[in-house]
Amino acid sequence: MPHTLASALDDNLELLPEARVRLLLVQPGSEWTMLGQTSSKGKAGTVRLSLPIVAALTPKDIEVAFVDCRMQELDYEKHVDLVGITVLTCEAPFAYEIATRFRERKVPVVLGGYHPTFRPQEAGRYADAVVIGEAELVWAELIDDFRHGTLKKFYSADRLCDMDRDVPMPKRDILNAELYHTFNTIQATRGCSLACNFCSVGAFFNHKFRTRSPDLVVAEIRELLSRGKLRRRRNRILAPRERVVFVDDNLIFDTKYALNLFEELVPLKIRWSCQATVKLAEDEHLLALAAQSGCEWVSVGFESINPENLKWLSKNWLPIGHGAGSTQKAGFEDIIEAYRNIVSNFHRHGINVLGNFMLGFDSDTPEMVERTIKATTRTNLDAALFHVVTPFPGTQLGEILDRQRRIMSRDWSLYDSGQVVFAPAQLSPNELQELYWKGYEEFYKVHRILLRGLRRPYSATSTVAIGMSTRRKMKRLNGKNSLRKESQKGFHPHSKKGAN
To answer: pTM of this prediction?
Structure first.
């Protein structure tokens, strides 16, 4: 008869399920990226749901702990049996460093998320197991293999999961709500069927769009509301309406579904935000119902004001105020007017607009990017985000620039849409980088932030708060990256690691 657990495992692997297994889930941090920034109070913006969902998929007899490295210190000496890390591309070097340190202690590591899905062989060099694609259909098998000492290198489902049947309610008990400005994040849909060549969402979800039953979405929101009331009682905080952020990539892609969902949200009396296309502004019934159900912010991907870029991207943003107008024949001022009309439609219904713009497409010259930056201040937007064109792994754009030998760096920590990692066609890399920072500097000048608040007094508090917070974060991030580049003197320490 064995006298120790170690000898027992050698003789009978079936005993492992009887032992108390400790699983550590890690959200990597990245001080160089916008995603890794925290507020002046040391809080992250929103909760990311991938690891709370993995926690919910984990058998109840396994002890689950969670560390968000954006705000929390990771204890490498803590006794754990298995580590799971979710990885976006810009977080890959940091995730690999975490994985390496745990594996040096003989602790098995699982990597999953966007980057391991598109670079599985690379991720496999730093992990004992790699989850390719969605985890819902393979996590139980992976845990069972771990318990029997038979972990496989790669786990990949043979189909996409069913949003109602296969996706559990996230296990938010593993999170510290005090570390997030917005704790109430929720997912009603997954994926996007649009074929934007710069976006990795379509490739990750096989260009499929799936929905979750509105009843399940509402049930989860009600649970969040009940938890929020308890938190407010404990902290003696009064809030007339709870705020919820939908993390969906395009909440209104299926109009019929969106209408049904919004109708179900009306009785909840919440305030909510989402990402959507301009289609929401074009559909008066859908827009009115969104506002009635509590929509207060919408993030819209306008992408560009350059007509040639919109033509290349197959975008058509001109129906409002232009009949069936086409970007094929539109001029710069036509597009600005169309954007103002779109924003005006949202504003008529009390909805604030955050516009997203990409800089550095092949038709962009220094003069055109300058005009684009100035034009964003004329569209009446309440907030804006600028993004450097980035050849993310798994995207058509990445493949195109790779074939053209225009990718300058595989230092994945730079792949955050804020650093130039390719050779632009009509700008130098330094010109594009400086214009990116200038976009934020111009849009978030203090007087402009205050004027936006005055223009829409009923939402002034959130508009000014978001504006000032973004201004602080970008100034801090610009300073950090300037120091980083000065210390690196032009070389990228992870470039050899990052190449596949």
So the answer is: 0.87
